[in-house]
Amino acid sequence: MNPTSRWRLFTAGLLALALVAASCGDDDDDAAPAAPEPTAAAPAEEPSDEPMDDHDDHEDHDDDHADHDHEDDDDHADHDHEDDDDHADHDDDHADEAMDDSDGAMADESMEPIKIGLISQEEELFSFPEVRAVAEAYVAYFNAELGGIDGHPVELDVCTVGDAVESHIACAQYFVNADDVHVVLNTAAGAGSVTTGAMLAEAGVANLGLGYDFPDYFVPNLYNFDPGLPGLAQVFFVFASGRRDVTTMTLYIADDPAFAPFVPALEAIAASNGITITEVIPLGFEPDLTGPVSAADTANEGWLFVLADGAQCTAAAAAVDTVGYGGHLFANDLCMSQDVVESGVLDGWSGPILSSAPTVDGGAEVDEIIRILDTYGGADVQRAGLGGWGLANTVIARDILIAGGGAGATRESVLQALSTYSSSDLPGMPDVSCPGPDPWLGACNTSPLMVTVSDGQLTSPDGFVLLDFTELNFLLG
Questions:
Q1: Order of strands across the sheet that contains 276-283
Q2: Is-contact 221 194, C-beta < 8 A?
Q3: Which pLDDT tens digit goes with each residue over 383-393?
Q4: Which of 45-49, 194-198, 301-305 has the highest mean pLDDT?
């Protein structure tokens, strides 16, 4: 069976899963146990150099997963931001401008808070705590410098999940039932993305998702500012072919059931860009991966690593160094966590960042991002990984709450604001616009940032790469 045919079968399976998940949102009793109502959180205090701690813990509604809490972490965010000369007009002046006319105003702590929900994937194989950390930092910034929303303090309502879809369902059901939450930042990964996105969309809750799978782009009421699996798969091969003249490639992929179904999509999209994946090599989670890496074809012009976490990437990089491979090296964003980048093991590697990164060549806009993170996220805040996604989507959440009526917003008004949202002023992001191109209506951001690691730092010599999602239509026919 050719790669395209296999991918169509997988897509059909995911679409079926999306329909099942959507039906879960219709029945509050059968989908998952609802979490208890949150405890009211204290509004942001005066800015300080210490991490904010504004939330009380929810009572645990699931012994293994779905831990609803309002307690801020001390581990603050990986943040990724960069200017774009080709696709977004991010002048240095933007770094000195507030996001609205509330510059310098503090939120009124006596007023009712306006909530932003967060489904935070922080447990087991997939873990993105940097998203929560940056969201907390920017919420504190909103309250300290931008007057919250219409003077009301902004509050982050967090529900944590693990790998199990059951925990994702429980968190999605919690926010479906939370009448005071009209927008949710959703970092649920894999099947959880399909499940939670469909449930929230069915309930009319604006969902800002991370790492969308193919079916998500066709679900009504889902709009996405993360290029997700389609965009990242496409950008790897657009970049490798067009900017690096790669025609043959080895694909290394995490040896985990969650990754295996994506292989046909990667093979098909590579072929559509003139690249042949000659071999697929699964990599385990052992500290020494020299054996499987040594078995690869060093004659291939590029090696692409789609791995699960920084430790696996570090082991893979050590194996590549041992083998002495001299071709082009590409990695997904999960490889580019701050500690791995700073270690230098990925020097010379390139990869897409889901939104943007404070690269060393980012200019005044990145300086402003770093100021905000250092002030409200604590001295130890990280500036790589998925932090850029968290930053941009937290800003978008506030924008659509304001456009939807602020303190008087409803789920309907906020979802309407999201469905027509566009901006050229997001920190470190290219122009974004909803809806995306037909039929990819959920694809509101089609320009991932390509970064290259140099001397233990992220650089962006290639800037944002503009993708045409309609070039993926062949996967749907």
A1: 276-283, 248-254, 302-306, 328-331, 350-353, 449-454, 457-459
A2: no
A3: 766 788 889 99
A4: 301-305
